[in-house]
């Protein structure tokens, strides 16, 4: 593991590391913010999953989350959004292949060899982080758009692994929208039965743990009606009796200006859960 | 004037406009953050001047300043760093020509025709902003690196025009460092007498107004010793009896992670001055 960026930020350190991933079979970069408290004790970790086209850089440069992480004493780990490298399969378009791993384990070629972002994000990366940095085993997870989908799916598939989960503008029902249909068709094949285990709306019914979901959505998001469709999550949560706080924000779009505006409330939500308090967000 | 970006952010709006500049003889873009208070009353304006290679985008995407601007009810206007367009002179290297206007009025060809960033930033842009947006005539100014130089020089050359001034990692003595020597030699010619009116350390002795200077500098800034040399500003301020708060921050570098970490304190400093309070920063 090699440190490739090391920058003071809000009294802590915003670092970027490069390492060999055995799960993905390639070299990966991830970012980690260590708050000032990490100089003296182990701190819990929020995993942030970014959206289509992003790398580990977008969130750390644009979201302004370090201020809140420093206030609450939480580390933030940001993985890349897909496997990387010249021998990794790719496709035309920003919504399949590199930058578009969808946080699942692909089963179809040419994707199955490298595209195992679920296992990387849920298992390999936390094991590395927990072995190498001053962090506890307490984890929270959040993300944006494709990464919001990833956060919800990682939490729903892995009961007990996260103390809290939240999402900005998530793709809540990938099986029913164009982004998800294209990606799932390629990564998982045509059989829609295999898609259900990677779809938050499908997973809600069988969730073994009723971890409350906090979802913020811009009401003027340009992808709202075609790709995001939060009302499907609302219906699925109601049917499953799963606690969901869905907040619609008039005027806000899909950009990082939206994330920046509300990331402080998400950090507070995760901090409350990581402290062992009831992590119920305000409605 | 044409609005090319309009995004909700911390209850206000982060907009970008394009307009024809008569001072610069080209089309320019600038960003303006309008805090929520601007929906109900006129608000004062902080002008932010960015550093080498930047456009109007860097500060608005990376500094996280909108949160504080929304708290204090201050608009933030970010101009570009040079004239732009195909017929605007340019040079090899990132430190001369486009992206490197140094906030002065050039007198030498091929630069003199378009490179009049001082007059644009101090006069034309504020006149436009004050005519078109819900703002008062109260102004503050700040910036980073080349833009920190610009903020100090604009304030020192124009007594009474700004209520407060601050800078991050400014080029305090361009006449004495490589970045400034290259730019001033090209824009102003070889005669160093002409350089003095664009050099903060030189201007301090004759300043008609003792506006307190707030300067933050990373102690691990990679440009500290060669290009920035804050001790020259400290000596010039002492000799002139000019109030200066220079804060050195161990560990911090030249990046936006440094700006983000302390921009909240600068907004508070400017807010105090714009409210008519003594704008004396903590030491």
Automatic annotation (TrEMBL), chains A, B:
NCBIfam families cross-referenced by the UniProt entry: fghA_ester_D
Record field: catalytic activity: S-formylglutathione + H2O = formate + glutathione + H(+)
Q: What is this protein identified as?
A: S-formylglutathione hydrolase
Q: Which UniProt keywords apply?
A: Hydrolase, Serine esterase
Q: Cellular component per GO? A: cytosol
Q: Which Pfam families match?
A: Esterase
Record GO terms (molecular function): carboxylic ester hydrolase activity; S-formylglutathione hydrolase activity
Protein EC: 3.1.2.12
* Entries under SUPFAM superfamilies matching the protein: alpha/beta-Hydrolases
InterPro entries for the chain: AB_hydrolase_fold (IPR029058), Esterase-like (IPR000801), S-formylglutathione_hydrol (IPR014186)
Q: Which family does it belong to?
A: Belongs to the esterase D family.
Q: Which organism is it from?
A: Pseudoxanthomonas taiwanensis J19
Which GO BP terms, alphabetically? formaldehyde catabolic process
Q: What does this protein do?
A: Serine hydrolase involved in the detoxification of formaldehyde.
């Amino acid at each position: 593991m090699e440190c490739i960026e090391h920058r003071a930020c809000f009294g802590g350190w915003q670092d970027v590391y490069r390492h060999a991933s055995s799960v993905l079979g390639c070299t990966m970069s991830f970012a980690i913010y260590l708050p000032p408290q990490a100089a003296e004790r182990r701190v819990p970790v929020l995993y942030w999953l970014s959206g289509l086209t992003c790398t580990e850089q977008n969130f750390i440069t644009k979201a302004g989350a370090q201020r809140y992480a420093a206030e609450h004493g939480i580390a933030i780990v940001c993985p890349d959004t897909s496997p990387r490298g010249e021998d990794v399969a790719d496709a035309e378009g920003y919504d399949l292949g590199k930058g578009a791993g969808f946080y699942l384990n692909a089963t179809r070629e040419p994707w199955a060899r490298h595209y195992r972002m679920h296992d990387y994000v849920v298992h390999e990366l936390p094991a590395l982080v927990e072995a190498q940095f001053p962090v506890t085993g307490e984890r929270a997870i959040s993300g944006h758009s494709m990464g919001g989908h990833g956060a919800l799916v990682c939490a729903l598939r892995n009961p007990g692994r996260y103390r809290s989960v939240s999402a900005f503008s998530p793709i809540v029902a990938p099986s029913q929208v164009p982004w998800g249909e294209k990606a799932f068709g390629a990564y998982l094949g045509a059989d829609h039965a295999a898609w259900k285990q990677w779809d938050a709306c499908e997973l809600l019914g069988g969730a073994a743990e009723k971890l409350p979901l906090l979802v913020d959505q811009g009401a003027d998001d340009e992808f709202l009606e075609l790709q995001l469709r939060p009302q499907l999550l609302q219906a699925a949560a109601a049917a499953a009796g799963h606690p969901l706080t869905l907040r619609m924000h008039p005027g806000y779009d899909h950009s990082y200006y939206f994330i920046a505006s509300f990331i402080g409330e998400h950090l507070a939500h995760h901090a409350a859960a990581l402290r062992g308090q009831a992590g119920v967000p305000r409605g």
